[in-house]
Each structure stands twice: as structure tokens, then as C-alpha cells.
Design goal:
CATH class of the largest domain: Mainly Beta
Pfam families: CDC24_OB1, CDC24_OB2, CDC24_OB3
Shape: elongated
Distance between the termini: 99 Å
Number of domains: 3
CATH superfamily of the largest domain: Nucleic acid-binding proteins
Radius of gyration: 30 Å
Strand content: 25-35%
Number of strands: 23
InterPro entries: Cdc24_OB1 (IPR035201), Cdc24_OB2 (IPR035200), Cdc24_OB3 (IPR035203), NA-bd_OB-fold (IPR012340)
Strand order of the largest sheet: 5-6-3-2-1-4-7-14-11-8-9-10-13-12
Organism: Artemisia annua (Sweet wormwood)
Protein name: Nucleic acid-binding, OB-fold
CATH architecture of the largest domain: Beta Barrel
Structural class: alpha+beta
Oligomer: single chain
Largest sheet: 14 strands, mixed
Order of helices and strands: HHHHHEEEEEEEHHEEEEEEEEEEEEEEEE
Number of helices: 7
CATH topology of the largest domain: OB fold (Dihydrolipoamide Acetyltransferase, E2P)
């Protein structure tokens, strides 16, 4: 046997080793052991092996297909993305995930890592072909029963505050446990409706008592998110971020839900108008929370608190809007308009706010008085002040008669501070934004604005 034959055999042996799946797996296991400087526990090794096996199964199908459970939910998915939402596909593309990023996901699978008691969730979303696995935080383990748990296949959830972990061997990304997971409920689903009725409708915001809490009573509450605000508190240890969520229930009783420090990212999952279900929130007094409020109690995100939400879905409505802009353009006021060329009426699709009123916050052009209808919100008007009245001798409430080329309307303004009439008078041209239009008792439209400030 000559040297060339020996060299050929060596090449063949090397080629066989490269193709041998077992030898490849051994190399992978060695790289896994080296990746953990503190040593490899059985749980870590089983986790890595399970992930490598799953990745090997996925590699056999080069064309990625979105899970069927997501396709089914897609048919009735009408929510608008939250501001900080990112897709699972983008995580793989960038190999990066910010702690403030929001994931709006669907649970594709829930399982225990082989040989461990660690729960894993496989997550997908409505915009991605990839899925990603999440190590479930232990505060949610009681919801992850594999046969009848709330965190089951097909369940929607929002999460944030996630760390991204890359596995050295397979390159498959995973999400480390996060405390900030919000479970999405659908009132049209029987199971979810029963859960809300059985668990969250017996307690009301007005029934919360500090004395009862001190005796070990816990609450499950259900209320609508009315507003979300931020505040930075200065203390002896520096500044502390706080989010204040105003909640109101069906009895119009209000309570503040506070998030502190790292918890503030949880507010990225909320939306005004959505209904929030709080299971076992931490109850404290307003004084203990440094909250300047007439309310006696407030709620906080405690160590055992779990959150559910019925998201607000922005509906749209077709409304007739007169295209008066075609007739009243220009800087000169027209003294007469040809009746034969009256305002053209078109159907415009506009979103409704959380109370069902038509929301004009993104309306593309100026409204004239003739365009105004009952239940319009977030509108703006521009015209000449022709009359000013003080209402019921209140220092901060006034009515202004505002007129433009199409007509006139009374605007009722509520000021948070006293307001001087010397700042505006009859004959001034003014622009007011953020008004709401309503029909008065005499069937005439009027607009009003609450807590509108004039500096």
C-alpha cells in the first residue's frame, strides 16, 4: 500500500466522522459542557439535549409553516399592535431583545423538560413563521397544568422584561423566565367568561379593606383601565420610576394601581379602555405609597399577583361627514353660498374610543361647525369668539360662542385653574383642540373640554 492509498483512507475516515450523527452529537455535548463554567447539572444537559433534538427535527423541514392554532386565532384577531411590540422573526434576525420590548404571543405548546419539573412554553405570533421557547417563571406554575391549565395551547399572552439566551450548540434562541406576563382573556369564549364570572366578579373595588387584608383576606378584582401615567419620585437613594394606572369598575369606583422600579415595564402591556383582572394584588394605603390622593387604598403588583386582561378592541364606524372644505377654502369669508352647490356628504370610516364614541384624534382635516355631530371626540374648531358667559358663578367654567363661515356653536370650557377673561375677548380668533361634541337638551350641538388649560 502506497502513501497515496493511506492518505485516501484517512480522508474517507474523516468524511465518515463528519457525517456520523452520533459523533456530531458528542461534539455538541462537549461544547455544551464547556459553555457552563460552574458545571453541567442533569437539568441543563437534558434541556440542551431536548433543544438539540427539537432543532434537528425542525431542520428536516426547510419551509417554515405557521402553527395551525395561530391561523385559527388570526381569523378573529382585530387588535392593533401595542407600541413596543416586536415579532419573533425580528428577534432571530437581530439576535437581540430589549427588556422593554413587548411580545404579543400565542402558546403553541406547553411541556416539561425531560427529567425535570421545569415548564417550557413554545410561543408564536401572528406576524412570524418562527417560534421561540420560554422558560416559564415559577410564579405561573399553578396556571401551567398540562391537561387543563390556563397557560395551554392556543392561549394568547403579552410579555415583556425578557432576557434572550443563545444556546451555544444548536444556535436556537430561548427566553429566560420573566415575571411580567399578562394572560389575555376573551369574553366570547365560554371558559374565559366562566373564569371572569367565578373568580373576579364577587369582589368590587369599593369592598377592599386594609383591616381585612391584615387578617389575611385576598382579593380578585376586575376594572377598566382609565388612564396610564408616569411619575419619578426623588428619595434618599436617588430617583425611582413609578407608573400609575387608574382603574374604574362598573360602579364607577376608582382605585390606583401602582408599578414601581423595574415593574414599570409591565405598563407597556396595558392599553386604555382594556379590562384588567387582578388576582391577589398587594393592597396598601395611599399614605404608605406616598400617593397624594383622597382615596384610602391603592393596589400594587405583589409577589403572588397574577394579571389577566380583556384587551380593548378599537371598533370603527362609518359616519357621514360634509365635505365643506370644498366650499369654504381661502382666507376671505364668503357672504353667500350657492344652495345648488351644497356640502357634499361622504362616508368616512373612523375609530371609536373606549366608550364607543367616534374618535377624531387622527382626523385629517379641519372641521367646521356645520360638520359637527353628536358623540364626536377629540375634535378641533377654529373661529371667532362672539359671546362669553360665566357658568353658575364658577371661577373656572365658561361658555364661549364660536362662529365660523358655516355657523356657530357654544363651547363649554372647564379650567383646572382660575382663568382671566382679559386673555381673550369678543372678536378674537381662537383655535381649541381636544373637544367633545354632545347634543344639548334643546337638540342643538355643543362642544366641551374638561380641564383645558390656558397659560
Amino acid at each position: 500500500m502506497n502513501h497515496s492509498d493511506i492518505a485516501a483512507m484517512d480522508v474517507d475516515e474523516q468524511h465518515n466522522e463528519d457525517d456520523d450523527p452520533f459523533l456530531q452529537f458528542v461534539d455538541y455535548a462537549i461544547s455544551t459542557c464547556k459553555a457552563y463554567s460552574s458545571g453541567v447539572t442533569p437539568a441543563i444537559l437534558l434541556s440542551e439535549l431536548s433543544q438539540a433534538w427539537a432543532e434537528n427535527q425542525r431542520s428536516g423541514n426547510s419551509k417554515k409553516k405557521r402553527p395551525e392554532c395561530i391561523n385559527q386565532l388570526q381569523k378573529k384577531h382585530k387588535r392593533v399592535k401595542l407600541p413596543n411590540t416586536i415579532t419573533i422573526d425580528s428577534i432571530y434576525e437581530k439576535n437581540f431583545l430589549s427588556l422593554t420590548s413587548v411580545l404579543e404571543v400565542v402558546i403553541v405548546d406547553a411541556f416539561l423538560l425531560p427529567g425535570t419539573n421545569f415548564y417550557m412554553l413554545t410561543l408564536g405570533d401572528f406576524w412570524s413563521s418562527n417560534t421561540i421557547d420560554l422558560y416559564l417563571h415559577r410564579r405561573f406554575y399553578d396556571l401551567a397544568d398540562l391537561t387543563n391549565g390556563i397557560l395551554r395551547k392556543g392561549r394568547e399572552a403579552f410579555l415583556t422584561g425578557c432576557y434572550l439566551r443563545t444556546s451555544g450548540g444548536s444556535g436556537r434562541l430561548r427566553l429566560l423566565p420573566t415575571e411580567y406576563l399578562l394572560i389575555i382573556l376573551d369574553e366570547d369564549e365560554d371558559d374565559d367568561a366562566m373564569l371572569l364570572g367565578a373568580q373576579f366578579c364577587s369582589d368590587s373595588l369599593s369592598s377592599i379593606s386594609i383591616d381585612a387584608v391584615n387578617q389575611g383576606v385576598s382579593y380578585s378584582l376586575y376594572a377598566r383601565i382609565e388612564s396610564i401615567g408616569s411619575l419619578e419620585i426623588q428619595g434618599k437613594f436617588g430617583s425611582l420610576q413609578r407608573k400609575q394606572i387608574d382603574l374604574v369598575d362598573n360602579d364607577n369606583f376608582r382605585v390606583k394601581f401602582l408599578l414601581w422600579g423595574d415593574q414599570v415595564v409591565l405598563a407597556n402591556l396595558f392599553s386604555v379602555g382594556s379590562w384588567l383582572a387582578l388576582d391577589r394584588p398587594y393592597v396598601s394605603s395611599s399614605a404608605d405609597s406616598t400617593l397624594n390622593s383622597s382615596e384610602e387604598i391603592c393596589l400594587e403588583y405583589g409577589s403572588v399577583t397574577q394579571l389577566y386582561m380583556v384587551p380593548f378592541v378599537r371598533h370603527e364606524e362609518q359616519v357621514p361627514v360634509a365635505s365643506t372644505q370644498n366650499h369654504y377654502q381661502g382666507s376671505k369669508l364668503l357672504t353667500a353660498v350657492d344652495p345648488s352647490q351644497g356640502p357634499k356628504v361622504s362616508q368616512v370610516t373612523l375609530p371609536c374610543d373606549s366608550r364607543g364614541a367616534i374618535d377624531f384624534s387622527n382626523y385629517p382635516f379641519r372641521l367646521f361647525v356645520a360638520d359637527l355631530r353628536d358623540k364626536m371626540t377629540c375634535i378641533s374648531i377654529y373661529g371667532v369668539v362672539t359671546n362669553i358667559k360665566k357658568i353658575n358663578n364658577q371661577e373656572s367654567t365658561f361658555s364661549l360662542r364660536i362662529e365660523d363661515i358655516t355657523g356657530g356653536i357654544w363651547a363649554k370650557l372647564h379650567f383646572s385653574k382660575s382663568w382671566s377673561l382679559r386673555k381673550i375677548s369678543i372678536g378674537h380668533t381662537i383655535y381649541i383642540a381636544g373637544l367633545t361634541c354632545s347634543l344639548a337638551k334643546h337638540k342643538r350641538s355643543q362642544v366641551h373640554s374638561s380641564f383645558w388649560n390656558q397659560e
